[in-house]
Amino acid sequence: MEQKEKELKSKLRLDINRSLLAVCFTVFALIISINPSLFKQSFLVPIQLTLAIPLLLSSMFARSKLAYTTRPKLWDKYGFFTFLVGYSFLINVLGILLSISIGLKFGLTFLIFNMTMSLIYSTFEIIEHKSKLVSRIKKDLLFIILLLLGGILPSLGFY
User: Fold this and answer.
1) Which of 13, 25, 39, 63 has the most other CB atoms within 10 Å of its CB?
2) Which has more pLDDT, 101 or 9?
């Protein structure tokens, strides 16, 4: 990959992380200022929201190195992993909050729709590059497990 392409890829990933961090801080501030008792209704809401912030920051730092590091694959994997976990936590928080505040159907719809969109994205990526099949299966499986354990099961009241 050319240097210009690496720089663009790095910038785009940083922009995505920056936007997700803004969402995390906004959700956090809104809950604190409007209804802090939401943090007490599910242990996983405050812990996942709190952990999403440093995970997304770590992903930003790792992805900012992509343009100039000598080991881009290492940083890319670390950046993707921290992004995926942080993003999953944010989605879980929003799904749980929807389940608590509006209703279980809305929360579950939100979480399941996120899974579905991830699978659709992966399908297109695999159609474009057959070599990404194993990689996409691993990434989607991790994402779905995180949403199942951190969003769906808590919304259903399993813990």
Assistant:
1) 63
2) 101
